[in-house]
Amino acid sequence: MKKLKKLLCCIVAALSCVTFSACDLGGMMDDIGFPSDGIFGDGGDTDSGDGSSDSGSDSSGDTGGSDETSSDDTASGSGDPSDGSSSGEEPSDSGDEPDTPVDIVTHELSIHFPFLGNVTSGDCALIKVGDTEVLIDAGSTTGSPATTVPYIRQYCTDGILEYVIATHGDSDHISGFVGGSAAGIFASFECGTIIDFPQTTKTKTSENTQVYNNYVALRDAEVEAGAVHYTALECWNNANGAKRSYELGEDITLNILYQKYYETSSSIENNYSVCLMITQGENNYLFTGDLEESGEESLVKSNDLPKCTLYKAGHHGSNTASSKTLIDVIQPEIVVACCCCGDKYDFPHQEFIDNIAPYTDKLYIPSMKKADKTSALLNGNIVVWSDGKEVTVNCSNNNTLFKDTEWFKENRQTPEKWLN
Ligand SMILES: [Ca+2]
Ligand SMILES: [Zn+2]
């Protein structure tokens, strides 16, 4: 079965690869399953995927406003049906590669937000508790695994991701599971329990179905190979063997939260996001995917949300998420926005910054987009760890708060609360 899975991964990746101009023999070798470390380290053409998607579908994106589905889709190249197959294939940026301290593995719990290797905003978070890992999303493009897989391998030393969560069907979240010229997450790791979204718009539209379809095929191959698959709704309902709560370690649990779009339809893919909380003693770490304001209202209403030590900013720091309704309840201490500052949607948005500012100035962001359209690191790989009480943030590039970066000073207004 493992062989069948590998073969299917190769076929899907190779089929994707055919349509990529960047595909070369080295890429094909990757697709056959060899480690891809560094092959694209100096690829140079950092904005190819993003650029192709710019052409057809950026009209609504920059507002980050009402048409969020296309906003997020276009972030990874899906708005234009013609580029569904090439959605966001981007070789890694050259040069500015982060190093990450490895001593953090000795801590009880660590949460990693790796740099995704390009200028497309996307989500990927690795949570490590002993030998148990949870991977939430695998952004941001099919080229991201060239950067993220070697990173994850440093920490997932047994090769098994015990829990894999795909929050929703947008390609800036699921492309990395599929991979392209670099082998994706599914081809690179054994998966235990896969939890994903009960609903998607991808089956109802002609846009961006290819990455989604590839994701489903490879996910199902994982199940053939021994993984189990549940939707977040099955987890919430404790149905079909799924559980609402999973123990990751002593006093550390993964809890699937409820929000109404698990079973109410929406035209916005972001609203279908799986939401979850990791709890470690009195510390709470919240992940809401790209859930937008109406979903956040439902989340607040349906769950007794505590104050949160860490909040993975909803929708990459967009003004469509992190509403006051949510933020005033969770009052986050540390916020990580998984975005490339100044990307095509101009994340992170001022409204998001203003909403979290009353509670914290500890905002961390992996990277920024430079004028030449390549990326530069801000914090780099962001790691949050704790032994149960005190929480530490350590980043591979620097630990500079977002408010103290040049990018912030040049591009955003300082909220009053941050002036002192
Ligand atoms: Ca493991
Ligand atoms: Zn997204």
Description:
Helices cover 28% and strands 19% of the residues. The strands form 3 sheets. It has an 8-stranded mixed sheet with strand order 6-5-4-3-2-1-17-18. A 7-stranded mixed sheet has the order 7-8-9-10-11-12-14. It has 13 helices and 18 strands. It has one domain: Metallo-beta-lactamase, Chain A (4-Layer Sandwich), CATH 3.60.15. Helix 1 (2-18) packs antiparallel against helix 8 and helix 6 (171-178) packs across helix 8 (209-224). It is of the alpha/beta class and 420 residues long. The chain has helices spanning 2-18, 25-31, 48-57, 68-75, 145-155, 171-178, 185-188, 209-224, 232-236, 293-302, 324-330, 350-356, 406-411, and strands at residues 109-113, 125-129, 132-136, 160-165, 190-196, 228-231, 245-249, 252-256, 276-280, 283-287, 310-312, 334-336, 340-341, 363-364, 367-369, 375-377, 382-386, 391-395. The radius of gyration is 19 Å and the shape is globular. Bound molecules: calcium ion and zinc ion (ZN). Calcium ion binds at residues 131-133, 156, 158, 160, 162. Residues 131-133, 156, 158, 160, 162 line the site of calcium ion (CA).
